Amino acid sequence: MLASIIVTGGDVKERKAKVDRLVAAIFEPFEVSKADVTYWTMAEFKGENVMDEIRGQIGKLGLSAHGASGVKVWVIYQAGLLSIPAQNALLKTLEEPLTGRFIILETERLESLLGTVKSRAEVVYVGGTGGGVTKGWRWLRQHLKLPYPSLIDLAYKLAAAEKEKIKEFLRECDEQLLEDEGVPGKVKVGLHDVLVFGLRALEGNVNSKHVLINVLWQAKRLTTEVESGK
Questions:
Q1: Residue that wins the pLDDT comparison between 1 and 172
Q2: What's the pLDDT tens digit per position in 60-118?
Q3: Which CATH number fits domain 131-230: 1.10.760, 1.20.120, 2.60.40, 1.10.3470?
Q4: Is the peptide bond before 97 cis (omega within 30 degrees of 0)?
Q5: Which residues neighbour 179 within 8 Å (Cβ) at sequence distance 6 or greater?
Q6: Checking DSSP bridges between strand 122-125 and strand 37-41, what pairing results, if any?
Q7: N or C: which end of the chain has fewer CB within 10 A?
Q8: 3 φ, ψ to 5°?
Q9: Comparison of pLDDT for 9 and 42, the residue scoring more
């Protein structure tokens, strides 16, 4: 488990339950020390100087823990409501956390967080596929911005659906891809080939997880080239 974690997918109750399980796992084999867990709900910070609050909380993480585990956890619910400057203020702490210090960001919409935030954290999905098998190309393109290790986790979540649902998802992605003006024609051809490969592979007696990992990795490579101007 990385020290910086993003919890997304599912509904509010599912995400909260996942956060609670992660906090318990972080403290194991000790009991959770309530004095060492700070919970923020961003909707409650309206009108307050969030930047000062963030700097103050980062400073508190450096103080000694109260419990025997030596662990401290900072949970931020509705992290997608953090402003861009506020998210940027978290980057160094997310990338170089102190030993025994954990930050958990909960958000309904993964795309509401900066790419630099997502790349510094482990993304944990809840609620099965989170409805992902029905959301098509634009949903997939947003998630292709995740770091490669997180794509494996996403592939496992998608693979939890029935094979026919996965195939339906890939077909919808292929159809909607044609309407995406932000993707050059040459790259569209490559992405089309990748999606068709996935569909054909799923017709056989293959492991859906392995197929989806291959599809996601190849699609990420192609879309990364677009964004980097290659």
A1: 172
A2: 998 999 998 899 999 999 999 999 999 999 998 888 888 899 999 999 888 889 988 98
A3: 1.20.120
A4: no
A5: none
A6: unpaired
A7: C
A8: -80, -15
A9: 42
**What does CATH list as the number for 1-127?**
3.40.50.300
Rounded Cα gap, residues 60 and 211, in angstroms: 45
Cα(122)–Cα(150) distance, integer angstroms: 7
The predicted structure's pLDDT at residue 130: 42
As annotated, the residues of the chain forming the CATH 1.20.120 domain(s) are: 131-230
Q: What tokens appear for 70 in the block?
A: 């030596």
Average pLDDT over residues 151-162: 81
Tell me the residue length of the chain: 230
**Per DSSP, which regions of 25-126 are E strands?**
37-41, 72-77, 101-106, 122-125
Amino acid, single-letter form, for residue 101: R
